[in-house]
Amino acid sequence: MAKHSAGILLYRMRDGGPEVLLVHPGGPFWTNRDLGAWSIPKGEHDDGEEPLACARRELEEELGAPIVIVDPIDIGTVRQKAGKVVHAWAADGDFDPALLRSNTFTMQWPPRSGREQTFPEVDRAEWFGPDEAREKLIPAQAVFLDRLADALGQLGETTG
Description:
With about 160 residues, this protein is α+β, with helices and mostly antiparallel strands. It has a single domain (about 5-160), classed as Nucleoside Triphosphate Pyrophosphohydrolase. The protein has 3 helices and 8 strands; from the N terminus they run E-E-E-H-E-E-E-E-E-H-H. The protein has helices at about 50-65, 130-135, 145-160; strands spanning about 5-15, 15-25, 40-45, 75-80, 85-90, 105-110, 115-120, 120-130. Strands 1, 2, 3, 4, 5 and 8 form a 6-stranded mixed sheet that branches. A hairpin with a 5-residue loop joins strand 4 (about 75-80) and strand 5 (about 85-90). The longest helix is centred in the C-terminal third of the chain and has 17 residues, at about 145-160. It starts with a strand and ends with a helix.
């Protein structure tokens, strides 16, 4: 059975267009990976947890700061290469990446060493314009950028 995650694609408007906040996974496997390694802040949930509640919790846990989310926009789901299904919402907001204080996880490292080490779940957060974000994102999540652009265009038509 596929694992399910939920996350929030935080965006802000700068110079007439959106920027999106992406996070880089922490831990030794991701240290030297950049293009195609970043993600929206997200985390797994079980069948008993409402996905939007999970997305809000994961945003706060991964960034280490409460983020006020008002009127999130459902931007659908994607299935990543390994089969995980990610449900995402977009939300207008702001965050200073210098304030990143991610939660942590513990794993044996190096492998078979018997030593446990603790790593941040997210080691970096950064704002990107759509083109650079598309290069940075895990390929399956790039469609969220298209869906955000569509949603913002529709919002502009109704409010502009």
